[in-house]
Amino acid sequence: MKRFCVKTEVYFDSGALEYLTLLDNRRALVITDPFMVQAGFADTLIHILKTSVEDYRLFTGVQPDPPVEAVAAGVKEYLAFRPDLIIALGGGSTIDAAKSILLFARQHAGNADDGGKPLFIAIPTTSGTGSEVTSYSVMTLGDTKIPLVSQDIIPDVAILDAAFLRTVPPQITADTAIDALTHAIEAYVSSEHSDYTDALCEKTVELIFDYLLRAYHSGDDLEARERLHNASCLAGMAFTNAALGITHSMAHTLGGHFHLPHGRANAVLLPHIIEYNADLESGGESRAATRYCKLARRLHLPASTVAEGVASLVSAVRALQKLTGTPASLEAAGIDREAYEALLSAMSQAALKDKCTAANPREVNVQQLEQLFRKVY
After folding, report:
1. Could you give the CA distance from residue 134 to residue 215 in angstroms, rounded to a whole number?
2. Domain 171-376 has CATH 1.20.1090.10
3. Which residues form the Fe-containing alcohol dehydrogenase-like C-terminal domain (predicted)?
4. Looking at residue 291, what is its pLDDT?
5. Which helix (H) or strand (E) holds 58?
6. Residue 112 predicted with pLDDT over 60
7. Strand ranges inside 60-208, DSSP E
C-alpha cells in the first residue's frame, strides 16, 4: 500500500502575502535571516502582520545550512515567547531552521503542555528546495549534514509571492532551480514513485526548462519567477511523497564538508547519476532508463530509443548548466583535489547511510559511490 498526501495549503501569485491579513492568531514568531532584514523584506511582512496579530517577535539568527547552535538559539526564543504562529521568511535554510526549531522546541516543552502546535507558515524567497511543503529538514553539526524527517514539521500554509524573488542573483536563481529539477528527476525514477508524483514531476521539469533561462537573464520577469516558484513547490510535493536518490545523498555530504551550495552540488552530480541509474552499459533497458527516456520525450528531445532518450536528457541538463554558468565538475567549482581525495572514503560511507539512498532506483555500494565521487571531480 502506498500513500500520497499534500498537507500544506498553498497561496500563490501576485498579492499572496495578503493571506496574512486573514489570520486570527495572537503571538507570532518570525524566523528569518539578516539579509531579509537588510533588504526590507522582513519589514514588508511585519507591516502586514501587525494588522492581524497582537504581538510578534523577530528571530534573525538563521545561517546557511543551519548549524545546531542557531537552531538551539531559536528553540530558546520559542520557549521564551510561546508563539501560536510561526512564520519562516527566507530560502531553504530559513525554512529548514524553522522546522528544526519547531520540532525540538515542542519536544522540549512536551507536546501536551505547550498549548498545541502553532500554525506554521512558510514564505520561500528562493525557488528550489520546496521545503515549504515537505516533511524534510536539514541542519548541520560540524561537517555533517543531519537530515530530519517528520510529518510534524510540514508547514500548514505556504505563501508563494514572486515579489520576493526579483532581487535573487542569476547564479542563485540557477542553483536553486536546478535543485528543484533534481528533486523532480529523482522523484520520477524513485522506487516510491506513483501516478500522483509522476504528474507533479513531469510538470516541474517542463516549467524549469521553459522558464529558468528567462528568470536567469531577467530577474524582473515576474511570469518566469512565478513559474519557477510553482515548479519548486510542485517538486517538493512530489519528493516528500516519493523520496529522492543518491544525487542528494552525495550532495548532502559534499555540502557538509566543502560548503558547496546544495543546488550547485546537485547540478554537478545529476548528469552522472542519470547515467549510473540508467545502466545502459549492462545492455538492457532498466526501469530507470525507460523513465528517463519518457521525460526526454515530454521535453520533445530526440528519444527514438531508450538509449537516445537517456543521452538526450543528460545533454539537456548539461546544456542548462552551461547556459547558466554552472560548474560542470567539482574541480571547476573550486574544490581542492587533495582535500577532496582525503575525504572520499568518509563521504562514500556517509552517502550510503543517507536516508535518500534507500529509494534510489539502482542499488549502490560504497565502492560504486567512491567511483562516482571520483568521476564528478
Report:
1. 24
2. yes
3. 173-377
4. 98
5. strand 55-59
6. no
7. 85-90, 119-124, 136-141, 144-149, 157-160
